[in-house]
Amino acid sequence: MTGDNLMKSHIILSNIVQRTNATSMAILFIMYMILAPWVSAQAAPLPPGTTGIKWNPGHYYTIQNWANDDPIYMAKVYKELQATPALRGMQLRYLWGWLEKSPGVYDFSSIDKHLAKLTAMNKRLVIQVQTKSFEADWKLIPDYLKAPKYEGGAFPFRDWGSTTIDGRNIKLWNPYVRDRLIALFKALGQRYNSHPNFEGIGMIETAMGQSTTPLTTAQADKWFDNLIIVQQKTRTFFPNTMTIQEINYPREYLKQITSAMVKMGGTLGCPDVYPDEPGLNFPGDQYSPPGAYKYFSQLSGTVPIAPTVEKVNYLNTRGDKKGHVPTIQELLVFARDDLKSNYIFWQRVPEYVNKVLEVMSYNSQKTTASGGLAAACPSTYSSCIRN
């Protein structure tokens, strides 16, 4: 329920009260008690002309996207958030196809619901718009994008040597696909940029996946050119909100994307915290560019750094499983000290949630609002808004 609608509801109730008897007033009191939580969940928007960026670094949950609206799962999430001061909020992931039903027709009701709940708890929301799926049957894109104008909208990919389709990625080299994605971010910016508890918005990893039909060099180049354009537009739609781009592979495009993110004042994320992953930790040489993690340590203090601990990171320190099973503290230390993180998103996996919460209860995570993570305002920001 929007603030305008709430105001109209109170005006209507006030007018009725003047003409009703005691019984009706009792009914109205019950109605008010229903409306009251919605009122308390509203937050005053940032004043027009505000130039600072919302800045509340620290530890956040990442929710498995199948669970966004699972009442049993989410009830546990909110209980844990309420009981754990070191967790400042959560990140929710939404497939593009979930948010846009037809051209320019959007459904943000799930985002609204969770933002209201988090606001009432003085917690914060980050969302990720997923333009890459990891299951072949996920509804990645709106149906209209499957038309010839958009070249079908998405391409299937698989692992090296496999014949099984692992998921799909959008055909971002297509200018019409790019423009529809920009339109989505514009609608999201108009709705959420000024909300003080809407902490950030991001896009999924740069790894495109091994297309079943190999992409041409021109397609790959244009894919990254258009990704930068989408991020540039998103910064204008969210002038007071952190905008995140996850980076991992391919390494030959990372300098281009990180340079652009620095110039526009964006945020660098990563879909994995792998302390021993060779490709991500690669220092670079005359033959091959450095891995993603090198940009994090170099750009710390310039742009926000916000990696995610995924389920696979709890299992091994390397993606090929040739490392070892890390402790939660080990993952935290690597993300904090090596990656110089301002934000860490911890995927809430039932098998590991108690271990994460135990580490969140340590004094090193409770003595500062940022949970021990770097908290200085990045130099690319004109100023930071802390609340």
- What global shape is seen? globular
Mean pLDDT, rounded to whole units?
A: 90
What fraction of the residues are assigned to beta strands by DSSP?
Answer: 15-25%
Q: In which order are the strands of the major sheet placed? A: 2-3-6-9-11-12-13-14
Q: Give the CA-CA distance, first to last residue.
A: 23 Å
Radius of gyration: 22 Å
N-to-C series of helices and strands: HHEEHEHEEHEEEHEEHEHEHHEHHEHHE
Question: How would you characterize the largest beta sheet?
Answer: 8 strands, parallel, barrel
The helical percent reads 25-40%
Low-confidence stretches: 1-41
Number of helices: 14
**Protein structure class:** alpha/beta
Tally of strands: 15
Task: Tell me what you see in this structure.
40% of the residues lie in helices and 17% in strands. The protein is of the alpha/beta class and 387 residues long. The chain is globular. The two termini are 23 Å apart. The relative contact order is 0.13. Mean pLDDT is 90; it is low at 1-41.
Give the topology:
Layout: H1 3-17, H2 22-41, E1 53-54, E2 58-62, H3 71-83, E3 87-95, H4 96-99, E4 100-102, E5 105-106, H5 109-120, E6 124-130, E7 154-158, E8 167-170, H6 175-192, E9 198-203, E10 210-211, H7 217-237, E11 242-246, H8 254-264, E12 267-270, H9 278-281, H10 292-299, E13 305-309, H11 311-315, H12 328-338, E14 343-347, H13 353-360, H14 363-366, E15 384-385
Parallel strand pairs: 1-15, 2-3, 2-14, 3-6, 6-9, 9-11, 11-12, 12-13, 13-14
Antiparallel strand pairs: 4-5, 7-8, 7-10
Helix pairs in contact: 1-2, 2-5, 6-7, 7-8
